[in-house]
Amino acid sequence: MTMIAQRLMAVREQIAQACVRASRDTDRVQLLAVSKTFGADAVQAAFDAGQRAFGENYIQEAVEKIGLLAHLRAQGLQWHCIGPIQSNKSRLVAEHFDWAHTVDRLKIAERLSAQRPPGMPALQVCIQVNVDDGANKSGVAPAEAAALVRAVAALKGLCVRGLMSLPEPSRDYAGQLDVHRRTRNLFDQIGAQRWPELSQWDTVSMGMSQDLDAAVAAGSTMVRVGTAVFGQRLVNP
Ligand SMILES: *Cc1c(COP(=O)(O)O)cnc(C)c1O
Questions:
Q1: In angstroms, how far is CA 206 from the centroid of its own chain?
Q2: For the chain, which end, N or C, has fewer CB atoms within 10 Å of the first or last residue's CB respectively?
Q3: Do 224 and 55 contact (CB within 8 A), yes or no?
Q4: pLDDT over 80 at 136, yes or no
Q5: Ligand 1 mean position to 212 CA, how many Å?
Q6: Contact by Cβ (8 Å): 79, 96
Q7: Residues 14, 220: contact at Cβ < 8 Å?
Q8: Does residue 237 register a pLDDT over 60?
Q9: What mean pLDDT comes out for the span 130-154?
């Protein structure tokens, strides 16, 4: 078994344990393997170990890997953009990714909608929320999230699935739990509006290698795990 296959097994087991502790169904928490800075060979190894959903931060780097592994797409390989989307990169995201987790402005959503090729399925979108109010941070303010969700839901070529958060790293479990619960509550409040245009409101993208347990306890449905799957990142592209 490859190192990546072993680490994947360990992360899946960690998610399963966290679900047991939280009395949640394991199959309600998806693992997104964050492959940024790692090569197509690492993605291939994870794919061979059964992993299908991969997260990338750097658009240019991702587009290269997506091209190299194009043949795996028909077998279920999925690409999720989890990095900041500048206006001048939105076309690459619209043309190459299955999901975008980091939509935090209507202008970017409108560009993604206009640039999504008509032959492709809708781009699955999460709205990024600045849940812990970090200065200079991406993400819409929590108070403005619902309005943005509704506006994005009206755009063709996109399907709004839920919220994403990227809180400041903290080693304190109670603090992690508190901030993740705020994201989950906001997600539930928006869902409770029962807007007809939100037909697939089912995703809370939160939790990484360091705060996975707290995120699952707070109700994450998609954890984004890099280091624990692929190892320490040594380079920044
Ligand atoms: C890098 C990254 C991750 C994964 O982080 P790890 O700590 O390596 O698990 C998750 N989400 C986002 C947005 C990231 O940039």
A1: 7
A2: N
A3: yes
A4: no
A5: 11
A6: yes
A7: no
A8: no
A9: 94
